[in-house]
Amino acid sequence: MRRAPRLARRTYTNGMDFIRTFDTLSLSDVALVGGKNASLGEMTRELGHSGIRVPAGFATTADAYRAFVDANGLAAVIRTEIDRLRSGEVTLARAGRAIRKRFLRAEIPEGLAAAIVSAYQALSAGDDLDVAVRSSATAEDLPEASFAGQHETFLNVRGEDDLLDACRRCFASLFTDRAIFYREEKQFDHLRVALSIGVQAMVRSDLACAGVAFTLDPDSGFPRVVVINAGLGLGETVVKGEITPDQYMVFKPLLDQPELRPIIQKSRGDKALKLVYARGGTHATRIVSATAQERDSFALDDDEILQLARWSAAIETHYRKPMDIEWAKDGRSGELFIVQARPETVQARRSAHAMVTYQLGESGRTIVEGMAIGEAIAAGKVSRVLDVDRISEVEEGSILVTRMTDPDWVPAMRRVAGIVTDAGGRTCHSAIIARELGIPAVVGTGNATDLLRDGDEVTISCAEGERGRVYEGVLPFEMTETTVDEITPTRTAVMMNIGMPDAALRCWRLPARGIGLARLEFIISEAIRIHPMALVRFDELRDHDTRKEIERLTRGYEDKTRYFVDELALAIGKIAASQYPQPVIVRTSDFKSNEYANLIGGRELEPPEANPMLGLRGASRYYSPLYREGFALECLALRRVREVMGFTNVIVMIPFCRTPDEADRVLATMASFGLRRGDHGLQVNVMCEIPSNVILTEEFARRFDGFSIGSNDLTQLILGVDRDSQLLTYLFDERSEAVKQMIRQVFTRAHASGRKIGICGQAPSDYPEFAAFLVDCGIDSISLNPDTVIDTRRTIAEAETRLAAVGAA
Question: What SS3 class is residue 277?
Answer without folding.
Answer: strand
